């Protein structure tokens, strides 16, 4: 009898000890280490594709505050431990949905506060931040990369804002970033709106050509690039100095590789024109009006077959998305696309809170975020979530309330080391490919301009490839410039000079 009790005691102690050891040995979800002058932030939650939770966002936020005070920490690298599979697949919305449906919306609000505070911190950080977008970079992954001056895409990048499929909204201040960064068909945030509504998954080459990445580097070069970044020294420890940003950009360019053979955007000139004409964010009163625009293209027999098919397919695709989410996305593009960064981040925080609180009993808001996440990510159903609410079920006043603060729910961002905001990123455009407007202003002059010096296609491409400061020597410049010219210009049959085609 005594021997049996001893055996049971030993077995019980061994089981408890093994659980303690397992708990102690569980890896930290974010790793921080020093590499000479660089500070490396490594997302380390590979089983969840590095989906951000509150612990991760707070750990990064708090550590970056400390790095900001250190003269020896001269730049930051954000990467993941499971490259090239994923940088970050998003925020851990499955945990958020479970908490919401259990009535624990407080934990959800703390999560969004931590995540969006980190986004704002990265956007306003006083030292260069370089993100390796090597693998899945979606949702929250976009949030920890797009606001950084240096965003490195690779052949493994999969970039998307897929929130329409889960009844959420394009958050992490993406509706501030995309209207300002996207290079093509985006004069009135058309491509920005198209990307957040469709959830299009872009390759690394496409993200780079569209301005969502500043550089294109192969996966094989990332370790050497990281080493090189750690060798950089800011002059007189002036980390925010333009000269040091230039130095970082030049170092990344040392490891840039040509785009894959035949690389191009998936959109034809005709398809880009459909996006440009139908998705004008600042003229659309509603998603219904967007559908009407697409219908007009489909029924217009003077339009190319390519354009009609694309418009039809785009509408069918949008009909599978959350009606409420699409309306909110349009409103946020309209507001955040013209507001300053701090207000945009705070507006996202209010909106996320309202989407979470809608899960509580008695809510009259037509939001199905928590239910759709349960369907798609927790129960892992393969079929699209069957949306109960239609476009007309969201009234104008409800739409406004969804993107507005509630007096009964006080919300604020975590205290940052900087006290700045802006309407335009101060450094981004110096290190990415040129925008459509820049190319056209040089090629044919601003609309309505007279006496603009005539230019040939060849000269314009050579100028942006070899002489234009920001794009000089950057891979893929010729691809983007040629596409912009094909979309907007034609060549005079006698002189070969470019003139606007529409």
UniProtKB/TrEMBL annotation:
Keywords: Hydrolase. It comes from the Eukaryota. It catalyses: 3-hydroxy-2-methylpropanoyl-CoA + H2O = 3-hydroxy-2-methylpropanoate + CoA + H(+). The keyword Plastid does not apply. One of its GO terms (cellular component) is mitochondrion. GO terms for molecular function: 3-hydroxyisobutyryl-CoA hydrolase activity. InterPro entries: ClpP/crotonase-like_dom_sf, ECH_dom, HIBYL-CoA-H. It is an enzyme of class 3 (hydrolase). Its EC number is 3.1.2.4. The keyword Hydrolase applies. Pfam families: ECH_2. Residues 39-399 form the Enoyl-CoA hydratase/isomerase domain. Gene3D superfamilies: 2-enoyl-CoA Hydratase, Chain A, domain 1. GO terms for biological process: L-valine catabolic process. This is 3-hydroxyisobutyryl-CoA hydrolase. It comes from Zygosaccharomyces bailii (strain CLIB 213 / ATCC 58445 / CBS 680 / BCRC 21525 / NBRC 1098 / NCYC 1416 / NRRL Y-2227). The lineage of its organism: Eukaryota, Fungi, Dikarya, Ascomycota, Saccharomycotina.
